[in-house]
Design a protein that fits this description.
mainly beta; Immunoglobulin-like; 2 domains; 5-stranded mixed β-sheet; 4-stranded antiparallel β-sheet; globular; disordered N terminus; signal; DUF4595 domain-containing protein
C-alpha cells in the first residue's frame, strides 16, 4: 500500500461519516407548529433500511434509532405535545426468527430534554406467580423463569466511495454464492451495505463475506485500478451494534 493511501485511511474519522441524503428517499415528517421538522422516519428506495430522528426546537438531534424491514424489523412510534414537539419515542427491534426482542421507551420534556428511558426485552419477562384462592385448596404452581436466550448482536457494514466515478460494491456470503448484494455508490457518498446478526457476539466480517468494488464507467481504451479497503476500527452504534466501513479508492 502506498504511503498516501495509508495516510488517507488513517485520516478518515468515524465521526465524519454520514449517510448521503440520497440513500433515504422515502420519508415521513412531523412538524412543530412553526413548520420546523420535529421528527422524521426515512427509508432507502427499497424501504429496507432507514433511520428515525427527533429534533428539538433549535434543530438539534435529540433522538436517533435504526429502522429496518430486513433481518427482522425495527420501528419507532412517536407521540407529541400539542406544539408538535416529541413527547415519547417507542423503539422496537426483533430478528426474523426466535423469541428475541427489545423495546425502549424514551420520554422527553417540552424543550427536548430526555427525562426517562424505560427498557424491556425477552429476558426481562417475569415468571408465573403462585395462585391462591381463599377457602379452597390451591395447588402450588412452581415459578417458571423465562428461558434466557442469547442477546442479539448486529455487525453492520457501510461503503464509502472516494473514487472519481460511481462504484458497484459487492458483498458475497462465503459458502453461499446466491447470497450476494451489490450497491452502487456515487463519488463522495456513503451507502448501507448490510448487517450480520449473531447471538452473544459480534463477528469478523471477513469470516463471512468477500467484498469487491468495480467502477461503473471507464474511459475507452483505458483501465482503472481500484481498491476496497477496510477502515481501521469500528463505530459503536449501541451496546449491541457495531458498524464497520469499507472505502473504495483509486490506486
Amino acid at each position: 500500500m502506498s504511503k498516501p493511501l495509508f495516510i488517507l485511511l488513517l485520516s478518515i474519522t468515524l465521526a465524519s461519516l454520514h449517510i448521503s441524503a440520497q440513500e433515504y428517499q422515502v420519508c415521513v415528517y412531523h412538524y412543530f407548529n412553526n413548520k420546523k421538522v420535529s421528527t422524521s422516519q426515512c427509508f432507502d428506495k427499497d424501504k429496507r433500511w432507514g433511520k428515525a430522528l427527533a429534533y428539538d426546537k433549535t434543530g438539534k438531534i435529540i433522538y436517533e434509532k435504526e429502522l429496518r424491514r430486513v433481518a427482522g424489523n425495527s420501528s419507532v412510534d412517536f407521540t407529541y405535545y400539542p406544539d408538535g414537539a416529541v413527547s415519547r419515542a417507542q423503539w422496537h427491534s426483533a430478528p426474523d426468527a426466535g423469541i428475541q426482542w427489545y423495546n425502549s421507551t424514551t420520554y422527553f420534556s417540552k424543550d427536548g430534554t430526555i427525562e426517562k428511558v424505560e427498557e424491556n426485552s425477552y429476558d426481562m419477562t417475569p415468571g408465573l406467580k403462585e395462585l391462591k384462592v381463599p377457602g379452597e385448596y390451591t395447588p402450588q404452581i412452581k415459578k417458571q423463569e423465562a428461558a434466557r436466550c442469547g442477546a442479539i448482536y448486529s455487525t453492520e457494514f457501510y461503503f464509502i466511495n472516494k473514487y472519481k466515478y460511481p462504484v458497484n460494491i459487492t458483498a458475497t456470503r462465503k459458502g453461499n454464492a446466491a447470497d450476494i448484494k451489490t450497491v452502487t455508490v456515487n463519488p463522495g457518498d456513503t451507502a448501507i451495505g448490510g448487517s450480520f446478526i449473531m447471538t452473544e457476539q459480534f463477528v469478523e466480517l471477513s469470516d463471512y463475506y468477500t467484498f469487491s468494488a468495480i467502477p461503473t464507467k471507464t474511459r475507452k481504451g483505458r483501465s482503472y485500478s481500484i481498491v476496497l479497503c477496510k477502515v481501521p476500527g469500528f463505530e459503536t452504534i449501541s451496546k449491541a451494534t457495531r458498524r464497520y466501513h469499507y472505502v473504495a479508492l483509486d490506486m
